Amino acid sequence: MRKWFARLAALGIAVLVAGQAPAALAQEPAAGKKVLRVGATQAVDSMNPFLAVRVVSTQIHRWMYGFLTVPDVKTLQPSPDLAESWTTSPDGLTWTFKIRSAKWSDGQPVTADDAAWTFNKIMTDEAAKTANGPVVENFESVTASGQDLTIKLKSPQASMLDNPIPIMPKHVWESVTDMANYDAEKYPTVSSGPYIAVEHKKDQYVKLQANPNYWRGKPKIDELQVIFYDNPQAAIAGLKKGDIDLIGRLNPPEFQSIQNDPNIVAWNTQGRRAAYLQINHGATTSDDKPIGDGHPALKDPKVRQALHYAIDKQKIVAEVQNGLAKPADGSIIPPMFKDFFWEATGDEKVGYDPAKANQILDDAGYKKGSDGVRTTPDGKRKLEFRFSIHTDTPIEDKLAEYLTGFFKEIGVTLTTKKLDSSKFTEETGVTALFDIAISGWSVNPDPEEVLATHLCSRRPNAAGEGGGTESFYCNETYEKLYQEQLKELDRPKRAELIKKMQEQLYTDAPVIALYYTNDLEGYRKDRITSITPIPEDKGLLYGGSGYWPFYTVDVVASSAGGSGGDGGSNTGLIAGVVGGVVVVGLAAFFLTRRRKGAADERE
Amino acid sequence: MTAPLDAAEPAVQAAGPAGRDEERPSGHGTLRYALSKAGGALFSIAMVIVGTFFVFRLLPGDPVRNLAQGRNMTPAQLDLERHRLGLDKPLIDQFVDFVGATLRLDLGTSYEYKRPVLDLIGERFGPTLLLAGTGLIIAVSLGIWQGTRAGWRRGSRFDRFSTGLSLVLWSVPTFWLGLLLLMVFGVGIGPIPGLFPTRGIESVDAPDGFAYLLDVGMHMVLPCLTLVAVVYAQYLLVMRSSLLEEVGQDYVTTARAKGLRDDEVRRRHAVPNALLPTVTLVFMRIGFVVGGAVTVETIYSWPGLGQLFYEAVRVPDFTLMQGTFMLITVSVIIMNTLADVVYHWLDPRVRSA
């Protein structure tokens, strides 16, 4: 009995002590220090901005480096960053930027030469093209003189001011010879933005500190940590517990799981993403030869239009996106970009109208068979389409179910085809082995890139390779409008042209926009006291363009008496004591066992 | 023999055909046996290298196009990438390059991280060994201990309870259990406080010295618990069933007749004989330790090899997948071979069979 008691007591002590440990271990940063911890469900691929392509990496680089311009916090129009002003030659081919007098975080002055070096590096070094190669494709030459940067273009380009390339310090980077294999893991980094990276533990976290030399002034917080979670559910758990303070890019179910938490602000605003269907309307290569195995009926604009009428977007938003999206009555640019957003009105607007869809197909000669499925006018093929989606995406599965139901109403059979991401990209973007596919794009403040994904030149080449099309679209009107908007430096006039391009996509329907997903994020209100979204009026936090939200953010300073810095020894002591007690407890536990064992032997 | 989980059997069978040696327990025989086994293992590894090359080339999707995902790359850029990765050479040349590089332990450069695969594996090896190794030790100890007690008193309340519980945990999906533990003990529900961290191997502002060890320890609790809970049943059941076989043997009766205490009959006589299948099982499991525990590492964002493999599949990063795949297969082969040899050395019956 006594032995049992001793054993239990020892175990009890051990458990109790172990229970105390976390309290002693909780890392309170040094008193008065302001730390923001951002959760991310993606790890950094590279800290080298010439190579990094993942969203989380480019986001972190936006907080670290300066750009020529950044989107204005109110209007999202280009506004001065490292370039304090700029002029354009009348032909639109020569741009001169005046670089402001600012300092790198190591105290060296920022000059036009740094910017020129950065662009020239990308133009001349194939490896440096990895992240932003296409951006400089239209650059003829880039030269610097003092604080003046001159960029000569091959042809006019209105999107010049939405340049996503971070300006790098020449004096630090010019010694890098093998760019393809340079991981840039040198800390603290030399940068000119609001934050400096001071530590990166791969797949665990990146630690950034406020840049005291930042030309707009030091950020309000001292430290910004980006903490990686492999699993979104675990990240939500981390937010609820307070291990992280903010997390962005949530999907509807994740968002709903934080909605009722009293400590969390559930951030739900218009997003930058449009979700659409891509329709194989007769895919061709860039030399206009047919490619792929798309269903011939989809070449008929009437069929595409009928499909459009058959989709109940309201219902999809309500039941697939849990109401956390806006049904699309426009095209590929979401409404948050007020200047460029276009929406169909009047007769042009395609609403949910299955009767009309049936009417269109009846009139065009697609007769229903005895099984209720329509056939092409020549009677050769039934209207049976494949719908390509990604594997392991519950939302796309659900969407497929609804679309199958809608299309059945108009005598069209839809079968779902699930593909892993690489196969999906190949079949829907290069080899055209699809009928209808899910698609979508996160749009930048300057929409040029998304507009370009529907250009003739983006189709795969004659050998069936390359490209970067989102639709295999090739339309003369669209092409002409694209060239015009490229040259149009007057923003309102350019916006008109861009709206016409969207109208063209809407009526011709190589893509059918379904909805614009909301930007869903969450942050702890007991930690973050203020944060300015971009745009200021109901904009984005983590997913936004530019560093504005994370430059303006303010958090509660950690309370006094914590560890870190000079308080560290204190925690160390407590932890030491706790650890000691654990060891003693365990030793006691095993000793009682041993004694029992010895007693057994003696019997 | 009623091995509840088939894992215990192959090693015994594999040990069979080579057991032609004399009965004498000579070190010589064991050495010869070990050499023949090592030869077999080398052959298997060679086959793995060849197999890996072709399997990964049969996978759907062009790696270069995949790299270009969501980005606008010109055909010229694609060609350049192909050239850089050596994908423009004839298949046979690629094969020769691949075998040569693999033999030099050059596993290539990760597409996604743009760093040597071997470096990436090296970084992840420690955390995985810590987590999966600790998990294995605890699971084996727990399994053997409970299996012994359960088998010795078959049908007792302890037997019914521990066997039942372990089987329930064995059947629970790892992912579900992991998340449940995370919710309950990581975040805290009702009166239960959130004691343990929700991610990683260490805190971002990790303390130094002894406190650091404690910090890592705290981070290990939940992943380790998950890992142990879902696997210890196999050790328990193998141990229990092999002990059951021994219980009825004559030598056990003899030991009892000598007047030995029940505990001693169990510990000194029955258990050593019953341990053999478990030893085999443990060795084979060690092979999988390096593979990490993909699910557990993913739930708890543990920076180990399992997580690396998961990332590689998610991208997909072919060279990285290839490298981790080879690492796991080769280590399983080596451990299997070791299990054969150890078994041969431990159990005279195998030598004489």
UniProtKB/TrEMBL annotation, chain A:
Q: Which SUPFAM superfamilies match?
A: Periplasmic binding protein-like II (SSF53850)
One Gene Ontology term from the biological process aspect of the record: peptide transport
Report the GO terms under cellular component: ATP-binding cassette (ABC) transporter complex; cell envelope; periplasmic space
Signal peptide segment: 1-26
The name on file for this protein is: Peptide/nickel transport system substrate-binding protein
Enumerate the transmembrane spans.
573-592
Which sequence ranges form a coiled-coil region, renumbered to this chain? none
Q: Which InterPro entries match?
A: Peptide/Ni-bd, SBP_5, SBP_5_dom
What family classification does the UniProt entry report for this protein? Belongs to the bacterial solute-binding protein 5 family.
Occurrences of domain Solute-binding protein family (ranges): 78-455
GO MF term list: peptide transmembrane transporter activity
Q: Where in the cell is it found?
A: Cell envelope
**What species is this protein from?**
Nonomuraea pusilla
Automatic annotation (TrEMBL), chain B:
Q: Does the keyword Ribonucleoprotein apply?
A: no
Give UniProt keywords alphabetically: Cell membrane, Membrane, Transmembrane, Transmembrane helix, Transport
Task: Give start-end positions of Low complexity composition bias.
Answer: 7-18
Q: Where is this region: Disordered?
A: 1-27
Location of the protein in the cell: Cell membrane
Q: Which InterPro entries match?
A: BPD_transp_1_N (IPR045621), MetI-like (IPR000515), MetI-like_sf (IPR035906)
Segments passing through the bilayer: 41-59, 125-145, 165-189, 209-233, 274-300, 320-346
Give one Pfam family. Answer: BPD_transp_1
Annotated Gene Ontology cellular component terms: plasma membrane
Instruction: Spell out the CDD domains in the cross-references.
Output: TM_PBP2
ABC transmembrane type-1 domain ranges (all copies): 125-339
Where would one find the signal peptide in this protein?
Answer: none
Q: What is its main location?
A: membrane
* Gene Ontology terms: biological process: transmembrane transport
Task: Give the bilayer topology.
Answer: Multi-pass membrane protein
Stated family? Belongs to the binding-protein-dependent transport system permease family.
What PANTHER family would the database entry show?
A: OLIGOPEPTIDE TRANSPORT SYSTEM PERMEASE PROTEIN (PTHR43376:SF1)
What's the protein called, per UniProt? Peptide/nickel transport system permease protein
> What organism, scientifically named, is this protein from?
Nonomuraea pusilla
